[in-house]
Write a structure and sequence with these properties.
The structure holds two protein chains of two kinds. Chain A is mainly β. In chain A, the strands form five sheets. Chain A has a 22-stranded antiparallel barrel. Chain A has a five-stranded mixed β-sheet with strand order 1-6-7-4-5. A four-stranded mixed β-sheet of chain A has the order 25-26-30-29. In chain A, strand 36 (about 750-760) and strand 37 (about 765-770) form a beta hairpin. The chains are: A mainly beta, B mainly alpha.
Chain lengths: ~800, ~400
């Protein structure tokens, strides 16, 4: 394509966009209305195709994300341009054309569409830029059905429908991030996704193991990275961008530099690096314990001002490289390298532990995640495999922990764990078959396999003599191996453009192997489990903007190496392994309504998840500790994971609404509620009830926003209220957990103000005045209290 | 006094580095046969030292009887005392749950065994690992309070830290080293001795003795500290049993480990009285619902604590006087090691002694400060101990 023809294309596209949009389109979708009219998109597509075959390099990038479960896979070349991406990232074609015109435009991006036929929500790049989250989990705060727990300022774990950690599954660009060392309860691993490299985050709520495999009991967290833009017709185009960020509550200073290049419209490159130095987090003060009416003592430990939390702060270094090559029409090769390095992150509830000297601390000196993968995608296959994407990945999760004893001890305990994961995953979509004038039929299917190998060791070091001694085993059994795999298929059909049905199933095979250790009475593990799960759903559209949904999904989670082999200090005490665990299985029923009207969006769901063989902690006596494991017998509270008898139940409701008002005004609110109960593992003891609350179920919570977002001026101003009621329904282990105040976690109401200015693509200034009233608050189950009053600011500039 | 063979073996092995083990039951005739308790061999210091053939007086507890407020489950199953019916009335200790403190006593025994088998730098490293285990001895040494000393004034306490964990604050440790005995006194002794032992500096027997004396000092303090602080609160009412774990390793009345093993080897009667005191505190706690804080003004709390404190102090005293007696025939490294143990462990009794009789306490304090005591000094010290802590 010559520059002239490119300019023509761009002009046509811009002209198409320039059509007044005052009249709402028939689909009544305000997100489309805000951005790109469908007709305009088509005009651009046509213009590009006409102008330059093989011009579909300019077509919307093939959707790299998993289409939401239950959603019919659109043919690739009909895929909606999902997001106005970060600047320099792959845009919708119309937007490309618009930018090519080099006319100042205020770009308001459409939010990526969440799943149509099940409970899900999406946080777009634009929302990330506005919210200025401190991490990927933080970006999900306030999403329906999601609650964020923080064991440390550098660690956060999203609860989805009352479950977290190993009972939710995480994916990054189609690569499974869960590995076999994910522990029971909250973990820090979603934090290791650099939110600045993310184009959008999607939360799929409810069990979904057919699509996502093991661990998808509470839901799936799916991160989609920024995609480099291909600019056909230009030899080399470079888009550098610099991002600088500061925050006062934790003295954060950081930034990111990235460059996106398009080479001859066929090769896209994005390279970036980021750094942050995050200081100690200042809160609004201590929270009041519901039981005593007194301020909670520890954790966290506060500084002399009574607000600065001492066991917080960290440093973070990220670097990434993404290559996208389109060798020919409808084929794409992606190579990704994402490296996350967190340094010197104290675990707040262990800095110090509740009863230890004030300078005792467990610090994650190194929390690294490296992901390298290649993905090949084709969209011109035969009808039975019209679209396919295969990913081969290698991941390394590295942790170096240091437990430094308090004065006057010179003792250090260093733990070093590495998980090496090789994986592959293929997802295939068929063509949409017109089986009758009033019915279509399609299918998706795939297979996946991930293999982990563990290296784990631990040693004592005495700093006064510099003598060290290796321990006989680490947190995990060294050289343990784990394989999780499966094959799945889903059929979907649509009748009279109104009713959609889906059904599918997965067969899974999981294998765990670990050598034993006689010294510490660690049993060898040689287990394998095969299982089958399924799902089904129906969705109906009474009107063009309203969808009613009913879904049944099964989930499962095979015990992983953490369950089967690990010995570790956990929040409420010491936990040792149970090599005899069986998989836990769930059944999730949900019904809801989805509305996408020109004036509002609404989603409201009620759910009930039953879990059989639920794996939870049960208290143990000293004489039940493994022989030779002194860490266990000396612990104040001892736990072992067990499969609970009977069924555990989590039920609740969640919803969200956006209202689009005149004059660029808008409202948004979400609300989430969950209630969980399970068999009491100590029900056979005197005075013990048969059933008890499940641990760390989030309280009723939500957010409310009112804002003005001007497309014309690029300005926005938003007021936000975040709130939660007290959570006083505590599991027995919660009562021993120092992180949870006596009697439960008090409720809170916190107000924020967001403001910013966007002059796309050159400048973005975003400010968040957080916790305006300097409220003391804590998210249930967290070690840290929430940030106090402070200002966060981010400046982006580039072209 | 009788001593079972396993107990004797334990005692022998653990004191091997300090003094050679007696060839038979050293106490079977009821006397503290210090002169017979060692071989008398002195290979390490040449002719400077002349072993004494003196003996300290035999321990005499014949005049001792329980106080009127004591809990006495072994006497008519507590039917004759002021204490209400309790699960422990059968003479057995019935814990709320098995205490984790027992693991620390087991670690103490493990260290004793390691040192009994060798005193190389590697042995010190192996012993230090036992000391440093997670939630182990070190973790508690560094915050242990000596409740015989006055509490840290309320005005100076950090309100953000639990009242019984104030010695986790470095500034308070520096300001109140007597109260914060663990971090201020005990842990530094242990750390220095381990460091020297691992580095191969000095006399390893002396280092090992200091370590053992300091840990036993810690165990002794822990018995009364846990009974004082951990029995009343509801939060962790199971911690009331920690005192039992520190004293005996949470074993039966007749077969204690650790500090309790040293006590029963010298005086089964004292062991019984300590056990009664431990059982009393458990009975006091059992008088309240597990989810309710107990009242520290409850007469049973006062009586039980006093009973346990008296018995525990006497128990520590007889262990100390025995080691003093062992000093008389020793020379050279053995003598140095044994006296290092005495000087270390004995510090724990200074405050109870001062609270009882300042004059006698002065004698004891002077003796403990004396690096080269004469047999007369030792005899005077033993006399003072007997006067200060006559009965359990």
């Amino acid at each position: 394509m010559t520059l002239a023809s490119a300019g023509t294309v761009a002009f046509l596209a811009w002209a198409a966009l320039a059509e007044p949009s005052a009249e709402p389109e028939a689909n009544d979708d305000p997100t489309v209305e805000e951005t790109v009219e469908p007709n305009a998109e088509e005009a651009v597509d046509e213009a590009v195709d006409e102008a330059e075959p093989p011009a579909d390099e300019a077509e919307p990038t093939v959707d790299e994300t998993e289409p939401p479960a239950g959603e019919a896979e659109p043919p690739v070349d009909e895929a909606e341009p999902t997001v106005e991406p970060a600047y320099g990232a792959s845009p919708a074609p119309a937007a490309e054309a618009r930018e090519a015109d080099d006319v100042r435009q205020v770009v308001v991006a459409p939010r990526p569409a969440p799943a149509r036929d099940r409970a899900a929500s999406v946080v777009s790049r634009e929302e990330l830029d506005e919210r200025l989250p401190r991490s990927a989990p933080d970006a999900l705060r306030g999403e329906p059905g999601v609650y964020i727990q923080q064991t440390a300022h550098g660690q956060a774990s999203p609860y989805v429908r009352g479950l977290t950690g190993q009972q939710t599954v995480m994916f990054f660009d189609g690569v499974r991030l869960n590995n076999s060392t994910f522990r029971q309860g909250p973990n820090q691993y979603f934090f290791t996704i650099d939110s600045r490299t993310v184009d959008h985050l999607e939360v799929q709520r409810g069990s979904a193991s057919t699509r996502w495999g093991s661990d998808a009991i509470g839901g799936a967290l799916v991160a989609t990275p920024i995609e480099p833009r291909l600019e056909p017709g230009k030899a080399i185009v470079v888009h550098p961008r610099a991002i600088m960020r500061v925050a006062t509550a934790d003295a954060e200073v950081g930034g990111r530099a990235q460059t996106i290049m398009s080479i001859r419209g066929k090769l896209g490159v994005m390279v970036g690096a980021g750094y942050r130095n995050v200081g100690q987090l200042r809160s609004g003060g201590r929270v009041i314990e519901p039981e005593t009416g007194e301020p909670q003592t520890v954790p966290p430990i506060f500084g002399p001002d009574g607000k600065t939390q001492l066991g917080t702060g960290f440093r973070e270094l990220t670097d990434d490289l993404r290559l996208v090559w389109q060798p020919r029409r409808r084929h794409r090769l992606t190579l990704g390298y994402y490296d996350y390095r967190q340094l010197d992150a104290p675990r707040t509830d262990k800095c110090p532990p509740r009863t230890a000297p004030q300078d005792e601390c467990l610090t994650y000196l190194e929390q690294f995640r490296t992901l390298v993968y290649g993905a090949y995608e084709a969209s011109d296959g035969p009808a039975a495999a019209e679209h396919a994407r295969t990913t081969i990945s290698y991941g390394n999760q590295h942790e170096l922990r240091q437990e430094r004893r308090g004065s006057p001890s010179p003792t250090r305990l260093d733990g070093d764990d590495d998980v090496h994961t090789l994986g592959t995953r293929t997802v295939v979509s068929t063509r949409e078959f017109q089986v009758a004038p009033w019915a279509t039929l399609g299918a998706r299917y795939g297979l996946d396999l991930y293999y982990d190998r563990i290296r784990s060791d631990e040693r004592f070091l005495w700093t006064d003599t510099n003598v060290s001694i290796d321990r006989t085993r680490g947190q995990y059994l060294d050289r343990a191996q784990y394989l999780t795999s499966g094959a799945w298929a889903e059929l979907h059909t649509e009748f009279v453009d109104r009713v959609r049905l889906r059904a599918g199933g997965r067969g899974a095979l999981v294998v765990a192997r670990a050598p034993g250790d006689d010294t510490t009475s660690s049993s060898a593990v040689d287990r394998q489990w095969g299982t089958v799960v399924g799902n089904a759903g129906i969705a109906g559209d009474p009107s063009s903007w309203l969808t009613l949904v009913f879904n049944v999904d099964q989930g499962f989670r095979a015990p992983n190496l953490d369950d089967l082999t690990s010995r570790q200090a956990v929040g409420p005490g010491f936990q040792y392994e149970n090599p005899e665990l069986d998989p836990e299985r769930s059944l999730s029923l949900e019904t809801g309504v989805l509305a996408y009207h020109r004036w509002f969006e609404l989603q409201a769901f009620a759910f009930r998840t039953t879990i059989s063989d639920f794996i939870q902690r049960d208290s143990r006596e000293v004489d039940q500790c493994p022989t030779g494991e002194s860490k266990c017998s000396a612990a104040r509270a001892i736990f072992q994971l067990v499969n609970l008898d009977g069924r555990s139940v989590i039920m609740g409701a969640e919803g969200g609404v956006r209202v689009y008002l005149p004059l660029d005004l808008g409202l948004r609110a979400t609300i989430s509620y969950a209630w969980g109960e399970g068999t009491n593992p100590r029900a056979d003891q005197p005075m013990e009830p048969d059933r008890v609350p499940l641990s760390r179920i989030p309280p009723l919570n939500g957010i409310a926003e009112a804002g003005w977002r001007s497309e014309r001026h690029g300005l926005y101003l938003v007021g936000v209220v975040r709130w939660a009621r007290a959570q006083t329904r505590l599991a027995p282990q919660d009562r021993k957990d120092a992180r949870i105040p006596r009697g439960g976690t008090p409720g809170y109401v916190v107000g924020d103000i967001r403001a910013g200015y966007r002059l796309a693509p050159w400048v973005l200034v975003a400010l968040v005045f957080e916790n305006v009233a300097d409220t003391a608050y804590k998210h249930h189950g967290s070690s840290t209290n929430g940030p106090g009053r402070g200002l966060m600011g981010e400046l982006q500039f580039g072209f | 006094m009788t001593t079972s063979l396993p107990r004797l073996t334990l005692l022998c092995s653990t004191t091997l580095l300090l003094a050679a083990c007696p060839g038979d039951d050293a106490s079977s005739d009821g006397t503290e046969s210090s002169a017979d308790s060692g071989t008398g061999a002195d290979d390490s210091t040449g002719g400077e030292c002349t072993p004494s053939d003196e003996q300290i007086p035999a321990l005499d507890e014949s005049a001792c009887a329980p106080s009127s407020t004591d809990y006495t489950p072994t006497v008519n199953m507590s039917a004759d005392d002021m204490w209400p019916a309790c699960a422990n009335d059968d003479g057995t200790y019935h814990p709320f749950e098995a205490p984790s403190s027992a693991a620390r006593t087991e670690a103490f025994e493990m260290i004793r065994t390691i040192f009994a088998n060798g005193l190389t730098p590697d042995d010190f490293t192996a012993a230090r690992e036992q000391y440093s285990l997670e939630q182990g001895l070190e973790s508690r040494c560094v915050r242990r309070e000596d409740v015989h000393y006055p509490n840290i004034p309320d005005a100076e306490q950090d309100p953000t830290v639990d009242f019984d964990k104030q010695c986790t604050i470095e500034a308070l440790v520096a300001a109140y080293p007597d109260r914060c005995a663990g971090p201020a006194k005990i842990a530094p002794v242990i750390n220095d001795a381990f460091a020297a032992g691992q580095s191969g500096e000095g006399d390893p027997a002396v280092h090992a003795a200091r370590i053992m004396g300091a840990i036993e000092w810690f165990l002794y303090l822990s018995v009364i500290k846990e009974a004082t602080f951990s029995c009343p609160p509801a939060d962790f009412s199971g911690d009331c049993d920690a005192a039992w774990g520190y004293y005996s390793g949470a074993t039966d009345r007749g077969s204690p480990l650790g500090y309790g093993a040293d006590v029963i080897a010298l005086s089964p009667q004292t062991n019984e009285r300590v056990f009664d005191g431990l059982a009393a505190m458990r009975c006091f706690r059992d008088g309240y619902p597990s989810d309710m804080d107990a009242d520290t003004s409850d007469p049973l709390y006062v009586a039980g604590r006093d009973q346990l404190d008296r018995a525990n102090n006497h128990a520590a005293a007889i262990v100390l006087r025995d080691r003093m007696g062992q000093q008389l025939p020793l020379c050279g490294s053995e003598a140095d090691a044994n006296w290092a143990w005495v000087q270390t462990f004995g510090q724990g009794l200074i405050k109870p002694a001062e609270d009882t009789d300042a004059t006698q306490a002065g004698v004891l304090t002077s003796l403990l400060a004396n690096d080269a005591p004469t047999p007369e000094d030792i005899q005077a010290g033993v006399t003072a101990i007997d006067a200060l802590f006559p009965c359990p």
